[in-house]
UniProtKB/TrEMBL annotation:
Protein name in the entry: histidine kinase
Keywords: Kinase, Phosphoprotein, Transferase
Location of the Response regulatory domain: 13-131
Residue intervals of the Histidine kinase domain: 160-371
UniProt-listed InterPro entries: CheY-like_superfamily, HATPase_C_sf, HATPase_dom, His_kinase_dom, HisK_dim/P_dom, HisK_dim/P_sf, Sig_transdc_His_kin-like_C, Sig_transdc_resp-reg_receiver
PANTHER family registered for this protein in UniProt: HYBRID SIGNAL TRANSDUCTION HISTIDINE KINASE C, TWO-COMPONENT HISTIDINE KINASE
Taxonomic source organism: Spirosoma linguale (strain ATCC 33905 / DSM 74 / LMG 10896 / Claus 1)
Record Pfam families: HATPase_c, HisKA, Response_reg
Catalytic activity: ATP + protein L-histidine = ADP + protein N-phospho-L-histidine
Molecular function as annotated in GO: phosphorelay sensor kinase activity
Modified residues (4-aspartylphosphate): 63
Amino acid sequence: MTSSLTNNTSPFTILLVDDRDENLLVLEELLDNGNRQFIKATSGNEALKYALKNDQIGLIMLDVQMPEMDGFEVAKFLKASPRTRDISIIFVTAINKEEQYVLKGFEEGAVDYLSKPLDSNVTKAKVNVFEQLWRSQQALKKSASDLAAINKQLEKFVYMVAHDLKSPLTGLLTLLHLVESTNESRPMQQDELANYLSYLKEAGYHQSTMISSILEYSRQSIDQQASEQVDVAQLLSQTTKLLFPPKHIQIHIVEPMPVLYTKKIKLQQVFQNLLSNAIKYNDKAQGQIEIGHTDKENFIEFYVRDNGPGMTIEQQAKLFALFRPVGHSQHESSTGVGLNTLKMLVEEQGGSLRVNTSPGEGCTVLFGWRK
């Protein structure tokens, strides 16, 4: 097999099949343009072996008259296999020019015929057409693959947004119910009511800002998403307020926290979801959550540590499966947030996400974030 590349374009691979080596050499010399790759087979069996192993073959130039297995039989086998049925085949022959044999070739899967002795200009022109066709097909496949990836990202993004908005909204509604029930049991003092309203107003404004940020983020490509100076301590303070943690849950931010130039909404998504899960699944009378960091050259490694129930090995195995419930107890029906999505956000920054946990010993989630 020989190849020669003169530019960055992917080589076009041609399988040449003929029982005579001199014919293979002539064909290769005729068709080589510096950006084509040739595989040469001297029998039908050898041709089938190469075709089944190499998924980059774009064209097969197949001699009809060969011992043991002729070109018609080879084409029949190629078209019967899902791996090779879409490869274009040109029959090359010095015999059987009658219409019945030409039709037989097309019935077995050929897309064109070349008669020996070959006309060099016609041969080159036909192969050029099939190369252009193959490149167009590859471009379509890539577009389809890219579209599928975008749809998958959109699905995950919608899931993340839904969770991000649900957490603070749940806290806000809980606070409203608290105000309502308190007012029903006893008249509320003016300053007490003002305090509650202040919390509600702050939560409402913060959620409105979050929605605007998410909408802006969704309209931009990854390259367009702007970075900004982010005071992590301030970000965490806002995020914890928005989650309205119950009174028995204490959240401690180990300061000082760094100031990073990064994409704020992504860092906020990671912290908000980790804190939301740490609050939601904590089973202690006095829940403790600690957020800290370690400076590691080009990265900051953050951690979110809780004194909750921890997880079994079986539960840990489900952590990175999107949309699968972790289930911290037999009564837990919520799906939680799969760490798979958070893992992807972290890996976009070049970092990694890991979990240290065991049953009854709480859980620590650590993730790296580029400075």
